[in-house]
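Researcher: Following up on the earlier apo prediction. This time include the ligand. It's zinc ion, with the SMILES given after the sequence.
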Amino acid sequence: MQERQTKQKQIIYEALRTLNHPTATEVYGYVHDAYPTVSRATVFRVLGGFAGSGRALELRSAGSEVRYDYNVEPHCHGRCTVCGRLSDVEVEGLPKNGVKATACDGFEVQSYALEFFGVCMNCKDGANA
Ligand SMILES: [Zn+2]
Ligand SMILES: [Zn+2]
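Model: Understood. Below is the ligand-bound prediction.
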């Protein structure tokens, strides 16, 4: 049983690396094609576990599904305004040590995330076709 769980985790982690910032549903679809025995509940649980243990980032944004990222280094994302996909973006001019935020209303700042908006390659291609 333990061995099977480890295997399932490996498969799900591989899917996470292969797919670009997938939602749990996308990971499930990918995994399920190759391994029909892996349940949807397992995929959701394992992804949540990765996020909890710091193996993956859980990317939340208001109004859209949670996406997962195996790259846990601090980096910025661009969100496609057409399909909602996330891509990594390189940003020049950001201070290496982060920016200083001053708390207001007793809010304690723990981290920050920057999101850029645009149109992904797929959607751009589709528009030109
Ligand atoms: Zn798109
Ligand atoms: Zn990313």
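Model: The chain is about 40% helix and 20% strand.
Researcher: Noted. I'll compare it with the apo version next.
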